Amino acid sequence: MHKRERASEISGRVLPFIQDGDYFFEKGIKAYNRRDLYTAKKMFERAVTFQPEEPSFLCQLASTLAEIGEYEESNRHLLNVLEQSGSDMSECHFFLANNFAHLGMYSDAEEHALLYMEHDPEGEFHEDTQELLDLISLETGNKSLNLPLSTEEELIKSHDEARQSIERGDLSLAQKQLREIINNHPKFWAAYNNLALTHFYKSEFDEAMDVLQDVLDKNPGNLNALCNLAIFLFHLGMDEPGAKLVDRLKQVHPMHAEHRYKLGNTFGLLEEHAFANKWLLSLRKSSFVYDPVTTHMLAVSYYALGRKELAMKMWKKVLELDPEGTVAPYYMEMAANDKLTVAGGDYQYRIPAHKQNKPKKDRQVKAMKHIQQVRKGLEKNKITHLFLLRGNKNEEAYSTLRDFCLRKEESLFVKEIAANIMLEQHPEVPVKLAHEEALVEVGTASVILSQALDVIQTLKNNGAVIDEHVLFYWSEAIKLAELTGEKIFENELAVAAAIDHLARKQKGKSTQKAIAEQYGISVSMVSLRMKKIIGWVNRNV
Fold first, then answer.
1. pLDDT tens for residues 382-405?
2. Is the dihedral of CA 152, 153, 158, 159 positive or negative?
3. Which of 81, 92, 137, 170 has the highest CB neighbour count under 10 A?
4. What span, in angstroms and rounded, lies between the C-alpha atoms of 70 and 36?
5. What does the buried/exposed string (b/e) look like for 439-452 if buried means 16 or more CB atoms within 10 Å of the residue's CB?
6. Closest Cα partner for 67 from 89, 47, 40, 106?
7. 451 near 478, Cβ under 8 Å?
8. What is the pLDDT of residue 354?
9. Measuring CA to CA, which residue among 348, 257, 249, 370 is closest to residue 297?
10. Confidence of residue 369 (pLDDT cuts 50, 70, 90)
11. What are phi and psi of 69, to 5 degrees?
12. Spatial distance between the Cα atoms of 196 and 210, rounded to a whole number of angstroms
C-alpha cells in the first residue's frame, strides 16, 4: 500500500481505468470459458452497448444466448450481423440454422443451412451443416423440405383465412379450408388443432377427439393438442382422464415461449392457478410482456393466489398496453371494492358474461376482431389526403388539419397522424384533438409517426400502391415501434420494402429477392423487418 502511494506521489498523474467494449468482451470470454454463461451474457451485452456494430461482439453474444436456450434473441443478433456484413459473416447462417432447428422451424433451418453451404462451400462448419440437413430430413420425414419463405407465407395466409372463417362462424368453410391445408401440409399441426376446435364448436365431439388423437398418433408430444384435449375432457365431464392428462402436463417444461403461453393459458382455464402463474410469469422476458391478454391472465393468476397487490400492478400495466380497453378497469374496480372472485373463465380477455352457451377461443377472437377493426379504420382516402397535406405547408392546409383533429367521428389513429403533421409544421404550437368527450392536447411531434410518414413517401417513390394492404402493415409497424420500442423505422428503405412485399403477397406473387433489388437493399434486410412485422401481427393469434 505504501509503495503504491509513493509511486503516485512521484508520477504526479492518475492512470485512467478504461472500461470499453473490449474490456467487457474479454471479461465475457473468461466467463464463457469457465461456463458461467449468464455472467458471459451480461458482459457481452455490455460490450455490445459500447460497440453495437462490432460483429464479433454480436456473434459471441448470439452464441451464448443460444447455449442458454434464448434462440429467438440469438437469431435477432445474428440477423443484424448479416444485415451489416452480408456474406462476409457466412457462419451466421450456420448458427441461425441450428437455432431454427431447436425452435422446430425446420424450413427456416434448412434455408439458412443451404445459404451457409452456398456462401462457404469449404467452410469450417461444412460437415456439421450436412449433418444438420440430414437430421432435418429425418425429423420431417422428407428428403428435403426445400420450402422457401414465400411458401411459408402462403401457408400462414391460408391458415389465417381458415381462422377468419372460424371467427365469422362459418365453421363448415373453415373445416374445408383446414382439411385442404392438412392434405397439402400433413405436418402442419396447427391446422389439425383448429380443425378439432371447429368440430368441438359444432358439438361434434367424437370428430373433435378423433382429430386430436390423429395429431397425437403422428406427433405424440404435440403440446397444443394435449392442452386442447385436457380442456375438451373437462368440458365433457370426463374428469378422471382429464386429471391424469393435467398431471402429465405439469411435468412438461417447454423452452419455447409459445408453448409456455399455451400451458399458462390451459392451466388458467382449468383453474390450476399456481401452474398458470408459473408459466405466465416465465414469459416476462419474451415479446408476450407487451401483450395485454397475457398480462391480464397473469393478473388473474396472482389474484386467485391471494396476491392482490401484484394483481393490481399487472392490471395497471394492461391499462398502459390497452388504454382504450374495458377489461382492466372492470377488474381493478371489482378488486378495489372486494367484489371480485376469479375462476377459469376470467383468464379470457373480456368482461365476464353471466351465461356462456359454448366455448370460444377468445384469444383468437380478440386478435381477429382487432385486425378487422384496424382494416376498417384505416380509410385509404383519408390517410392519402393527410399525406398530401403534409407536403403543403401553407395556412389553408394547416387549417384543414386543425379541423380534422376536432372531428369526433374520425378514428383517434388518423387524428394523431393529422396532429403530428401540424406539429412538424409548427412545433411551437400545441394541437388539440377530440377524443371521446374531451379535448386532448398534443405538444410534441412523434418521432415514430414522422418516420412512418417518411416511409409512405419511400413506398410511393418506389412505385408501391398505397392501398388497404400497405396501410394495414404500415399501421402494425407503427404499433410495434410504439409498444415495444423496436426501432423498425430507422432504415426507411428496408421497412418500406418489407411492407411492400407483405402487401403484394396479399394480392398475388412477390419475392423477397425482387423487392430487395427494386429497393436497392439486401434480402436479409427485407427478411429481418418482414419477420418482425409478421411476428407482431400474429402475436395474439
1. 777 777 778 777 787 788 888 888
2. positive
3. 92
4. 15
5. eeebeebbebbbbb
6. 40
7. no
8. 47
9. 348
10. very low
11. 90, 5
12. 8
The residue type of 256 is H
Beta 431-435 vs 438-442: how paired, if at all? antiparallel
CA 81 to chain centre: 20
Cell of 422: 401540424
Is the Cα torsion angle 182, 183, 186, 188 positive or negative in sign? negative
Cell numbers for 298: 397473469
- CA gyration radius for the chain? 26
Classify 434 as helix, strand or coil.
strand
Q: Give the pTM.
A: 0.43
Residues near 193 by Cβ (< 8 Å), separated by ≥ 6?
212, 215, 222, 224, 225, 228
Q: Looking at 329-485, which runs of residues are DSSP E strands?
A: 431-435, 438-442
DSSP result, 35-58 = T-HHHHHHHHHHHHHH-TT-HHHH
How far from the centroid of its chain's Cα atoms is residue 296's Cα? 17
Q: Grid coordinates in use for 380?
A: 385509404
Cα separation, 99 vs 371, in Å, equals: 30
Alpha-carbon span 340 to 319, nearest angstrom: 18
User: Can you tell me which residue has the cell 401440409?
Assistant: 185
Cβ 254 vs Cβ 263: under 8 Å: yes
Q: Which cell goes with 512?
A: 423477397
- Grid cell, residue 389, equals 397535406
Concatenated DSSP letters of 438-474: EEEEE-S--HHHHHHHHHHHHHHHTT----HHHHHHH
Task: Say how far apart CA 11 and CA 465 lie, in whole Å.
Answer: 70
Neighbours of 86 (CB within 10 A): 15
Over the stretch 489-535, which tens digit does the pLDDT of each residue have? Answer: 988 999 999 999 888 877 666 788 889 889 998 888 888 888 888 87
DSSP state of 435: E
Q: Which three cell numbers stand for residue 167?
A: 371467427
Question: Residue 468 above 50 pLDDT?
Answer: yes
- Only one residue has cell 375432457, namely 233
Nearest to 292 by CA among 371, 231, 349, 346: 349
Question: How confident is the model over 200-248, as pLDDT tens digits?
Answer: 878 788 888 889 988 888 887 788 889 989 988 888 778 888 888 999 8
Decide: 445 and 424 in contact? Cβ < 8 Å.
Answer: yes
Interior angle at CA 125, CA 122 and CA 130, nearest 5: 90
**How many other CB atoms sit within 10 Å of the CB of residue 266?**
25
Q: Give CA–CA dist 540/365, Å, rounded.
A: 9
